[in-house]
Amino acid sequence: MQLFSAFCVFSALALQQVAAVTWYYLRFETPSGAYISSFSGNMVAPTLPGAGTYYLWPGLQPSDNAGVLQQVLDGRSGSWWIGSGWCCSDPDLSWGSGFNVNNGATIAFSNKVDSISDGTWATSLKSGSNSATGSFPLPTHPMNQAIFAIELYNVSWTFGALTFTDVVITANTSSTSWCTGGPYNYENAAVVSVSTPSATVSGGTTTCSISKVVLERPA
């Protein structure tokens, strides 16, 4: 597969390095022909070591790997900022609004599509009194991959664990193995701990629930 970054394109399988990027990510992928209709949870902002190109994000990627819809915790200014966006190919969509985030703060994120055939995604972010929303029409890019990523450019993973809690992914399939089998760990590059996922099926929709996903440290 190809994983599209927050602000550039990177071919993970071909191992094409761009601007000294280092990747760590986990991925839940639905079966062929099945697509994700919502993806939500909480992300805890780690302690930012200083200004640098740190991108930490949950995101959704379509089966054609054309881009990624993501909520990016961005450390370039020396303090965290988070916003939602579609990167990095046609259609060229504006990023949603965002806000600054303190070290240790919990950010609730949500992505929900109005219908898989129409493909307009509503995103929301909330942390304390701060909130932001976005709308992303992506009718030709149904999403089949839910991703938890650490994307680093010329900086190292020195900020400790990246934690996600209360993660819920829904998809239009009665298959559950894509959930209960746990996520793919890219090149086993990260030491991770993931609560045992649980799956429930109702009306042809599977709801996948994971209480905690932690990217602990580099392997």
Describe the structure.
The chain has 219 residues and is mostly beta strands. It has a single domain, classed as Jelly Rolls, CATH 2.60.120. The chain has one helix and 17 strands. Strands 4, 9, 10, 11, 13, 15, 16 and 17 form an eight-stranded antiparallel sheet that branches. A hairpin with a 6-residue loop joins strand 9 (106-113) and strand 10. The longest helix has 4 residues, at 177-180. Mean pLDDT is 92; it is low at 7-18.
Query: Which structural class do you get from the secondary structure elements?
Result: mainly beta
Q: Largest beta sheet, briefly?
A: 8 strands, antiparallel
Write down the Rg. 16 Å
Helical fraction equals under 10%
Layout of strands and helices, then pairs:
Elements (H helix, E strand, L loop, with lengths): L2 E2 L4 E2 L10 E9 L6 E9 L8 E10 L5 E7 L5 E8 L10 E4 L4 E8 L6 E8 L2 E8 L5 E11 L8 E10 L5 H4 L3 E2 L4 E5 L3 E5 L2 E14 L1
Antiparallel strand pairs: 1-2, 3-12, 3-14, 4-9, 4-13, 5-6, 5-12, 6-7, 7-8, 9-10, 10-11, 13-17, 15-17, 16-17
Protein name: Concanavalin A-like lectin/glucanase
Keywords: Signal
Organism: Neolentinus lepideus HHB14362 ss-1
Give the structure's gist in a few sentences.
The chain has 219 residues and is mostly beta strands. The chain has one domain: Jelly Rolls (Sandwich), CATH 2.60.120.
Key attributes of the depicted protein:
219 residues, 1 helix, globular
